[in-house]
Amino acid sequence: MAKHRMAKNFMTGIISFVLIFTVVFIGVQFFTKTGLFRIPGVVYLDESLSDEEFAFFKNIFTEELDLDKDITIAARNELVMPELKNNEFLYNIYVPVTDFYNTETDITVESADELFTNCLDCPWKLIPIEELGFSQRLMKINTEYYLDDFKNGAVFRIISFDSELYEKEIEPLVAEAMKKTFPEKDTVLTLAQTGVTALSRGMNAKLYQVGDATYFAEGIKNYLSSFDLTHTSNESSFSGYAGTRNICSDRRFIDTLTAIGLDIVELTGNHNQDCGDISALETIDTYVANGIKMVGGGKTADEAAVPLEIEQKNNNITMLAYNLSTGGATYDNTPGANQYYEDVAAAQISEAKSRGDLVIVDIQYYECNAYDYTYENQTCDYAGSMAGDQIGFFRHLIDLGADVVVGTSAHQPQTFELYGNGAIYYGLGNLFFDQIWWPGTTRSLILVHHIYKDKILQTDIVPTVYGNEMQTRLMDEETSKWLLNRLANVRP
To answer: What would the pLDDT profile of 144-195 be if each residue is shown by its tens digit?
Structure first.
């Protein structure tokens, strides 16, 4: 009897061992990577993926790759940058662009997908953000401009990875490949360039009435102070001799400049010595005291010739500014503007380019005088309307290597053009002055450069205007388009 029980227990043990072994063996075969009967995870590439994306992910999820769980990879388009989940990535940003000279800059759509449809008659196209450059005009989407906040005004391409084992199995495979950098507020430098500022004559008279120099900036200060850097070309020095008939500024006018957040003052103008060297020297000290950098002028000829080098937000910019045949230049140890010399300019541009800097050259050129009391005189719209060969000279600076050339002497806005590897803005007009009698001299252009990785992503051309009250303000949209079309139509 005992032997029978022992035999029975032995057989039971054998059977149990076989059953456990069989279960474990089958489990191993079905549920481990080395199992004979295991079904590996499948990679599903959703039809929402483009051909480029399909190929991109096929290179990551190769046939040799063995996954434990299925994964579905899909894409979607958003008009607003969403908060990404842990299994989502921003694959790319697409922006609409049109011709550089086109002033129709807004597209209205109901969904992001509409922008990916083929539109043969559309005056715009959708491009990846890395292809955006100054020679195209970035458009708005539903009135939203991408470079304003980097969260609207573009199509944001989102890729999602749906897997039960995302963090353990998928994230290690895709995290590095999906890591991309895009323009953002911390890496895009905004530089606003403005034209002639001459806080003098009639503006002195107006200041005596209103008593507060910030009055003149009231309509423009919030806009101009919103940029990382704001520039103007101030042609008049602060002086105790300021009056209603000279190009000298009441000392209180420094408040106008600080109100607009001025960071860079250009001193290439031909009137900075109108009230004498002492006033010019004291004016430079005033800029220094207010933390305002200078370019194109100084206390001596050597100081005036020093380029302004800017390093900000991982961008490197060299600003050069010269006075050409308009008076006011210094040749010695007296204050004045930086005289243009061909060999010096060529060397300075070349040196800046050798460092990889973005190079902006400002020129105080011959003034165009076409002032009369008619409603509009378009003579000064043309780049060839001044003494000398303005077109040839400005283009020559691009040929020397400048990325942007700006005329800062014109009291009326002038035309602009793409040329070679750069852009030319022949004249910006009056930001602040007392010339209220002629329509052209009450207007100016603000150039807003958006700079990323030492390159210009875009330059927005923003018109301004002032009236008898001498308070500069942004021009309304309809008039802006009219003026920009008028200037673009007479480009060389």
So the answer is: 999 999 999 999 999 999 999 999 999 999 999 999 999 999 999 999 999 9
Domain spanning 189-488 has what CATH number? Answer: 3.60.21.10
- AA letter at 160: S
Which residues, 6 or more positions from 386, have their beta carbon under 8 angstroms from its beta carbon? 365, 366, 367, 368
pLDDT tens across 58-70, in order?
999 999 999 999 9
Which helix or strand (DSSP H or E) is residue 7 part of? helix 2-31
CA distance 308 to 255: 23
The 3-state DSSP class for residue 73 equals strand
Token pair in block for residue 433: 């002055």
Q: How far apart are CA 138 and CA 132, in angstroms?
A: 8
Q: Bigger pLDDT: 373 or 98?
A: 98
Q: What ranges do the domains of the chain cover?
A: 43-174, 189-488
pTM of the model: 0.91
Rounded to whole angstroms, the Cα distance separating 348 from 305 reads 10
Cα–Cα distances (Å) from 32 to 24, 35, 39, in that order, read 11, 5, 9
3-state helix, strand, coil in the chain (%, to 5): 30, 30, 40
